[in-house]
Amino acid sequence: MTSSQIGGSSAAIELADIRAGMPLQPVLSQVQPITPQEFQDRVNKAARLMRERGIAALLLPAGTSLYYFTGLRWYPSERLTAAILTPDAQVVFVTPAFEESKLRETLGEQAAIRLWQEEENPALLVRQWLKDLGCDRGPLAIDESTPFFVADALRQALPDQALINGMVITAECRMHKSAHEIALMQSAKSITLDVQRRAARILREGITSTEVADFIDSAHRAYGAGPSTFCIVSFGALTAIPHGPDGVQTLREGDNVLIDTGCKVQHYHSDITRSYVFGQPNARQRSIWNLEKEAQEAAFHAAQLGVACEAVDAAARRVLAAAGMSPDYALPGLPHRTGHGIGLDIHEWTYLVRGNTRPLAAGMCFSNEPMICIEGEFGVRLEDHFYMTEQGPRWFTRPSVAVDQPF
């Protein structure tokens, strides 16, 4: 007998219900974009950190850090578009001359923009612009996601100026989320949890993994959250593959089901996994699911202010080791870290993993997903996210209650 939360509906019914009732309207009505003042506050913090560390400037090519500090979303390409942040909180943009009008659509006429022509080497111009800004003494920090060709060109153009990893600035700012950022992620996660709940209800014997993934994408879009940012749908023994198998699968009675998906609200991510059984769970399935639940709870309770990130990972592994599974990263057991940071990137600093001694602090946000993988049988991953408050961890979404009550 299948749980009342699994099966019994259809994609058409669930999508019609979203579109007709918008059941999360109270949540979505609170969504507001990041304000110009918030972007300026981020620049001011970065500038303070640069002064404290003796860093001459921070270069941010196209990517999420560029958006985080400036509000400019730009596509990475072979042409350099970037922002230079200075220790006195100036922001100067660098872009090909023919892109100026496009930048000003976002940045406005008041933005400081330096232009380069197609026949010019932008790295050499950056050298001159850094000198003009008084930022040519001391190391230049560059975002960790900077393409090699950009870093290499800067290295050649700035032989007397050291290049360092900009995460000493960017990660230090981005890993501590504001109340506004947490609210945006709460909206995204609330949407995805409801989509997960509806996905469970459309399951039937013979449904394919692609049908389920297509429904999830349509449901995210129906909520106005855009397409799914990713979607893993696994059935049966293939649920033991952490990031899902290739190819199409067909659901059968008694299969384990693992669905991991997310969306974005105002560029901030959700990422939620649910595991359950289509049909009546057997004793083995129920036992492993309960062990996964225990490991997830242990990780959550270990996440206290000032505790090292690695201690959260260790708490989950102790539960698994006590049940006879690997205490390390071998199988059967947990082959990956217990959790990752999340925000503008689905995986970002910092991480709940062995060796990370960074203490937990207010504003940090993490996944909690100590997956159990048993090759040849099945896998179970329960993934919810939490954020750190001055009173300790707080869930974004309510974790599953039981294998036959996942929502």
Question: SSE order in H/E notation?
Answer: HHHEHEEHEHEHEHHHEEEEEHHEEEEEEE
Fraction of residues in helices? Answer: 25-40%
Mean of residue pLDDT?
96
- Which class best fits the helix and strand makeup? alpha+beta
- Terminus-to-terminus distance: 17 Å
What are the key terms here?
407 residues; alpha+beta; Creatine Amidinohydrolase; Creatine Amidinohydrolase, Chain A, domain 1; 2 domains; 6-stranded mixed sheet; 3-stranded antiparallel sheet; 36% helix; hydrolase
Give a concise summary.
The chain is built from 12 helices and 18 strands.
Characterise the protein shown here:
The two termini are 17 Å apart. The model has no long low-confidence stretch (mean pLDDT 96). It is built from twelve helices and 18 strands. The chain is globular and about 70 Å long. The chain folds into two domains: 11-29 and 176-395, Alpha-Beta Complex (Creatine Amidinohydrolase), CATH 3.90.230; 36-174, Creatinase/prolidase N-terminal domain (Creatine Amidinohydrolase, Chain A, domain 1). The strands form six sheets. It has a six-stranded mixed β-sheet, with helices on both faces. A three-stranded antiparallel β-sheet has the order 7-8-11, covered by helices on one side. Strand 5, helix 7 (148-157) and strand 6 form a beta-alpha-beta unit. The longest helix is centred in the middle third of the chain and has 23 residues, at 179-201. By secondary structure, it is α+β, with helices and mostly antiparallel strands.
